Amino acid sequence: MHYPWWYVPFxxxxxxxxxVATLHIWVALYAVGGGIFLAYETGFAHRTQNHKxxxxxxSHTRFFILITVVYGAITxxxxxxxxxxxxxxxxxxxxxxxxxxxxxxxxxxxxxxxSAFIFLYFWDRLDSKTHTIVxxxxxxxxWMSLVLITGITSFxxxxxxxxxxxxxxxxxxxxxxxxxxxxxxxxxxxxxALYIYLHASFKLKEDRDMMAFLARRSAKWVMWGAxxxxxxxxLWYLNLPERSKAALEGASALNIMMVLVTVGTVLMFFMTxxxxxxxxxxxxxxxxxxxxxxxxxHVTEGEFIREAVRxxxxxxxxxxxxxxxxxxIPELKTHGYLNGGVWTRFxxxxxxxxxxxxxGKITTESLGKLTExxxxxxxxxxxxxxxxxxxxxxxxxxxxxxxxxGWTDEMVKIAIEEMDKIHYFMPPWxxxxxEAEILAKYINSLKLPSPNSDITxxxxx
Length: 461
Description:
mainly alpha; Cytochrome Bc1 Complex, Chain D, domain 2; 2 domains; 2 strands; 70% helix
C-alpha cells in the first residue's frame, strides 16, 4: 500500500485498462501477423516476378505502417499510462521481475521501427533478396515482441509456483507462456489476413482478378491462424489455475464468451474456406467488413476472458486485485488496513486526528470513538483502497449500491469479513474487524431499499 488510489467513475479503473488494451491489441496483433504476411508474400512476389502483386503489397505496407506505427505506438504508450495509474503496485512488480525482458522487448521494438521504414521507403531501391530479408527482420522482431510481452502477461495468470528468489527465466517460462504464444500467434495471422481483406476490398475493387488472387492466398493465413487459436486455447484452458477454471464455470458471461470465441473461430475457418479460398469472387466489401468486425469481436472477447479469470489476483500469487501483496494480509488484519500505507495514515491524520496515537499509528480503540461523519469518511477511504478497483460506487461496473440493494446491515458486514468465501474470485478482507464495521457503515449509507419488498406483504385475493 505505497500508492494512492485512482477512482474512475462508472467504468472503474480495471475496465479502463481493458478498453485501452483492447484498442491496442486490435492493432498490435496486426503488427505481428501483418509483418509476417508482408515478408512472406513479398518474397513470393519477388520470386515469381508478380509486379501487380508487388504494387499492391507496397500500397498495403504504407497502410500497415500508418496504422501500426502511429496508432499502435500511441495506444501502446496509453497502456503504460493507464496501468501505471490503475495498477501501480502490479506494474512495479512486473518491471522488477521482468526488467531483462522489457529491455529485450525495447531492442526488438527499435528493430521493428527501423526495418519497417526501410522496407517501405527503400522498396524500389533494394534488390529483391535484401528487400525480403528486411521484411523478415521486421516480421521476426515483431513476433519476438509478442513472445516477450506474452511471457510477462501470462505470468499474471499462472506464475507456476514462482517465488521472488527464482529470478527471470522461471517466471518467463510459466505454464501459460507457450499456450498464449500459440494462441496469440494464431490471432495475429488471422487478424492480419482480415485487415488485408478489408484494405483490398476497397483498394482493388476495380481489379477483380487481383482481388481473387489475393483472396485465395490470404485465406490460408486465416485458416492456419484459426487452427493455432484453437490449439493454443485448448492448452490455455488445461494450464489454468483451479480458481480460474472455477471462475469460467461459475460466471455465465464468461461461459457465453468462451462458447462465442470457440464457435466463432470455427465459423471463421469455414467461412474463409468456403468463401475466399474456394470462391474468391465472394470477397466483396460487405463480406470483408463482416469478417473484419467478427475478428475484432473475437479478439475482444478473448482478451476480456483472459483478464477476468485472473481474479482475485492482478499478478498470480503475488499482487491482489486491491493493490496489496498477498503476504501483507496477516499484518493488515492485525494492525489495520489504514495503518498499512503512508497515504492512508496521512489522510486519517487529516480527517480524524484523534485516531492517531503518539507514535503516529491508528488504534482500533480510537476508531470506535470517532464521530459518525469521521467514520463515514474513513469508510469511504477504505472502500476506495480495498474495493474501488472492481466496484463503482452508485452507478457503473459492479456498483456497490446496486449489489447491496435490499441487504441488511448485518449482511453487509458479513460479506465484507467473508468476501473471499462468498465469492472465491474476490480477495480476502485485509483489515481489522473495527475497520470492517466502518466500511460496512459507509456501504450501508449508500444502500437502496429492495425492489421486492412488497413480496413479503400479505395481501388478500
